[in-house]
Amino acid sequence: MTELIPEKFYVCTGDITKIQADAVVNAANSSLLGGGGVDGAIHAAGGRTILAACRQLREIRYPDGLPPGAAAATTAGRLRATWVIHTVGPVWKDGTRGEPELLESAYRSSTAEAQRLGCGTVAFPAVSTGAYGFPKKLAAEIVWRTLSEIITENPGSIRKIYLVFFAAKDEELFVKTVRSLGGYACP
Ligand code: ADP
Prior knowledge:
With 187 residues, the protein is α/β, with parallel strands linked by helices. It is built from 5 helices and 7 strands; from the N terminus they run βββααββαβαβα. Strands 1-2-7-6-3-5-4 form a 7-stranded mixed sheet, with helices on both faces. The longest helix is centred in the middle third of the chain and has 18 residues. The site of adenosine-5'-diphosphate has 21 residues, from α1.
């Protein structure tokens, strides 16, 4: 666990389904009906009530699917979290199709949803950097800028943000990128 902003912003490596936080963010796809990667892991660990709630979201609020950059919450089922906030990151094409803005929007929408629900702690995965192919270093720059801004300026109910990587080398790349941007608070 690396503390990037004391008592406010932490990064770690592990399985996000094991994290205790008020909300866990899911890197979902627009269908909200499950997928691989984090999405598959969250549905597998959290159980069928999450899928049932996603189906309801589709029926009631998002008949055409959750658009990229948006976020919507459901129960967290059997997870240790209270909420799962499903967000859809951009699929990386060539960087000129609004991918950076959509990635930022996925983090901002998820945070807004967490604030609306009164969450104190929120855990994020590295949205779009798996199957969706977003370059990890560019994602690190965008995610650091976005989350550090949110947690220091306008956190609402949110006291702590965790960014959870699945591979130690991804966490290392993130921390290295933050350092190169002059933002790493701890030695
Ligand atoms: P996307 O489709 O948005 O790219 P993926 O789930 O394919 O989403 O990958 C996003 C990131 O989540 C990847 O960096 C991957 O290594 C990571 N990941 C996969 N499973 C888990 C998990 N159980 N906990 C945390 N991170 C995970």
